[in-house]
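Quick check before the chapter quiz. The format below is the same one you will see on the exam, so make sure you can read both the input and the output lines.
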Amino acid sequence: MDNLIIFLDLTGIFVFAVSGALAGVRKSMDMFGVAVLALMPAIGGGTIRDLTLGQPVFWIENTVPIWVALVAAGACFFFARFIESRLRFLTWADAVGLSLFCVVGAEKALAVSGSMLVAVIMGVVTGVAGGIIRDVICNEIPIVMRRGEIYATAAFIGAGTFCALSYVGVPEQIVVWVAMGGAFLARAGGIKRGWSLPTAQ
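Here is the expected output.
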């Protein structure tokens, strides 16, 4: 199970770094700016999670996540012009990263705290905080704050599903994939079908 979580964590770092790097390319940033913007969603949420939980920050203990994010940034900087629609690719890369990170964050928080409530909150933070930082740097309204967007809700579904299924004893490998799938389907429904939460009248 540990190897699966490590793989998913690095995959999430890569795709979130892609989302940040493509946002930098869309803003016509230089190579340094693209790299910095790639790092924000890739490590931002996990850094806040680890600091909140009083744990060693994951990318300081092991620098592999930094290198993974920088590779993604370099690939996007040099080859973004070959992606037909960067905005669409950014949206889906972000959706995949969100689905991976909310579950990885919940798994780590549950192991550290033993509290499902804390695990759900930290799963949401891991999934959305880095994207908020990315959007603020790009001078855009963060996705999580946009009216009608299913974003933080998708992270809540993923983290909540992980904790609920873990509590009832479902095998961990099944829990991980079901939770990620739930988060991704919720976000995909928001992107493709316009799903949204009710707003106050």
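If your answer matched, good. Residues 2-193 form one domain.
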